[in-house]
Each structure stands twice: as C-alpha cells, then as structure tokens.
Amino acid sequence: MENEVKDKKNENMDNLDVEKDNIAIEVKDLCIGYKNIKAYSIKKNLLKLKKVHVEEFQAVKGVSFTVPQGQILGIIGKNGSGKSTMLKALAGIFCPDEGTIDLKGHTVSLLSIGVGFQKEITGRENILLSGMLLGFSEEEIRAKMPDIIEFAELGKFIDMPVKTYSSGMHSKLAFSITAILETEIMLIDEVLSVGDERFKKKSYAKMKELISNRDRTVVIVSHGINTLKELCDKVMWMHDGEIKMIGDPEPVLEEYQEFMKL
C-alpha cells in the first residue's frame, strides 16, 4: 500500500514537471509604471529652487499568469487598461519595475503599428534590420526577403524610406516580416484591424495558418470580440492594470461585454 502511494505521488510529480516544462511564458508579480514630470522651465526651477513634481502612473499592477507552449492567449480591456504595456514588456521593450518575465529561451516577435522600424531607411533595409533584431542571420533573412516583399505588396515603396509610408503600408510590412520570419512566440497588437479590406482578409488567413502550428505560442491584444472568440484558447481581461478575469473565451468575453454596458 505504501509503495502504491509513493508511486502515485511520483506520478503526480512527473505530471507537474511535464506541465512546467510546457510553459512558454511565465509572468510573476509584474509591475510597470510611467513617470509623468510636470512641465516647468529650467529657468523657473533654478530661480525658485523648487523640486520638480513627478507623478507616477501604474500601468500594470502585480500581474501573474502563464501561457503554455502552443496556446493562443487573447488580452482584452478598455483603453488604458495595460494591455499594450503588457505586450511590450513581453517583447522586451519595457523593463519591469518589479516582478519577472520568463520566455523560457523562446524567440519572440512583436507585431504592432509604430514599433520597431527606422523611419529614415527603406522598407527593404528595415526587413534586414528587423530580422537581425529577431535573431535571424543575414543569410536567413535574405533567403526569405522575396517572400516578405511579395506578401507585403508595397511595389516600388519597398525601396523608399518608411517615413513615406501610410499606416496601412506600415502595417503590411510589419505583418509580412513577422509572418514570414516565423518566431516561437508571436505578440500581436491590434494589427489585424489596419489596412485595406483585401489585405485584412489575406493577413487574417495567414494568421490562422501560423497559429495552427501548435508549437507556436501567440498572445493577441484586441478589442475584436469575434476575433478573440475564433482564434483564442484563453482570454485575459485586464482592467486598470490588473487581471479582472482569465479563462475560456466565451464566459470571459460575455462578462467583459456586460461590464462595458454599465
């Protein structure tokens, strides 16, 4: 009997180890704040010898969650709830004030409008730069370059500075780089809602194809209820920098919609 209990205990421990090994993203007690310095002229500060008043806004407050490998997590919440801050922290753009983010050594890419491009250089040069920042070799990027350019459909603009691009063109290039240079973790911030209708459908189909690979972990920030319902395994509702609810998409999104009616 004692041996059976030991065997059962060992089996449970083995299962816990398997679950732990299967985690792709682990966030513990994450806090991120912004400092807002009130505008004072240098001259006034020197003459009055007053201290500059600094206000701090907590965008993320003690958040903890895990995402298993191959899972698609959606994040929803009203504007200012901390969704995009969270995503940028996962991408390494923001550093935590407190807490930890562990990506378990996986490669990660952030698909977000206005992030990651050097505006003074061309689209083609940005493909190379973005790919190298994602950890790909120059040889790997150049091999994928024709596919990225073809998917982006930018024509002659691919050899023009990114500062000349519209938001839709920026979106097309950003999506194409992330879609063709596939990383193990994909972070997506509302980018599927930008661009012309035909490209939206094309990018949505490509996204479904990419996330059908169960080795890839995806985090999607979106206000699109139907998008999150269709694509996600779990949904996390953030409110005022905290997790209000996390679980299966249907009940979380229903609660969120009811809350937003209030």
Give descriptors for this structure.
alpha/beta, about 40% helix, about 25% strand, three-stranded antiparallel β-sheet, single chain, about 260 residues
DSSP strand (E) fraction? Answer: 25-35%
SSE order, one letter for each helix or strand: HEHEEHEEHHHEHEHEEH
Q: Identify the overall geometry.
A: globular
Tell me the radius of gyration. Answer: 22 Å
Helix content: 40-55%
**Order of strands across the main sheet:** 5-6-7-3-8-9
Q: Uncertain regions: pLDDT < 50 for 5+ in a row?
A: 4-18
Distance between the termini: 57 Å
Total count of helical runs of at least 4 residues: 9
* Assembly annotation: single chain
Averaged pLDDT, please?
A: 84
Structural description of this entry:
By secondary structure, this protein is an alpha/beta fold. The chain has 9 helices and 9 strands. Strands 5-6-7-3-8-9 form a 6-stranded mixed β-sheet, with helices on both faces. A 3-stranded antiparallel β-sheet has the order 2-1-4. Helix 7 links the parallel strand 6 and strand 7. About 6% of the residues have low confidence.
Compose a concise summary of this entry.
The protein has 262 residues and is α/β, with parallel strands linked by helices. It contains nine helices and nine strands.
What layout of secondary structure does this protein have?
Blueprint: H1 2-21, E1 23-37, H2 42-48, E2 54-68, E3 72-76, H3 83-90, E4 98-102, E5 108-112, H4 123-133, H5 138-152, H6 167-180, E6 185-189, H7 197-211, E7 217-221, H8 225-231, E8 234-239, E9 242-247, H9 249-261
Parallel strand pairs: 3-7, 3-8, 5-6, 6-7
Antiparallel strand pairs: 1-2, 1-4, 8-9
Helix pairs in contact: 4-5, 5-6, 6-7
